[in-house]
Amino acid sequence: xxxxxxxxxDSLGTRLFGxxxxxxxxxxxxxxxxxxxGEELIAPVVRQPITTGTAIIEGGFTLERAQDISxxxxxxxxxxxxxxxxxxxxxxxLGSDSLAKSVVAGVVGLALVFLFMTxxxxxxxxxxxxxxxxxxxxxxxVFKMMPVTLTLSGVAATILSVGMAVDANVLIxxxxxxxxxxxxxxxxxxxxxxxxxxxxIRDSNVSTLITCAILYYFSNQLGTTIVQGFAATLAIGxxxxxxxxxxxxxxxxxxxxxxxxxxxxxxxxxxxxxxLPQQAAPAAAQRS
Length: 288
What we know:
two-stranded antiparallel ribbon, 66% helix, Multidrug efflux transporter AcrB transmembrane fold
């Protein structure tokens, strides 16, 4: 038993097809040719008039050939033409070179952030740098486990999330500085600083996550995979940056607050110990 192709017509097609097949039925030279985009798909002969609105085409087709013709016939009946909206071609060497340069840029940017945070915020800046290093390792681990294909847009989103992690640490350290200037002990300044900075950190990161969800949804609907990858990578980075800023940085600072280093309060503010109350350092020493 050989594969056949079934045709079914609407009322107008039934009438027109019936008229044409009646004209050429039984002719050894005439046939009904079916074209798609200017190319002939098939040209079967007509054995008898077909007026019922259904027809079959047979002729020794293989199953694969019959399926191909059926799909082409189904595609050819769409009431519109395919319009090319976007076409891009990126050479493999160019893509890998751009990705490598983006990774280098990210490493250099991270190193500059480490340098600035350490020089300006001193001990808290060094803690933030360590937390960012842990954050980077966590991001790479998550990308490996999921797995996530690292594209140019993904690298950009990762670098952006590093900036957001730094921003969270800056908010916390500025709050700590204010508390130390008000005469608080170091451990108290750490706790109050984190508690007061948390609402701003939470709101900004939640807003970013909502934006990522919107970008991911609409890029998925429109088929824009670059934007989709950016949104997904940024969302992962933002969630991990909140963890590194709130949990990792806070834990390390609390450990430092229990060591003799906590007596050097000037090392925990960016502008030096001269702006701290004179009684803050002795009070901290007595409590330790």
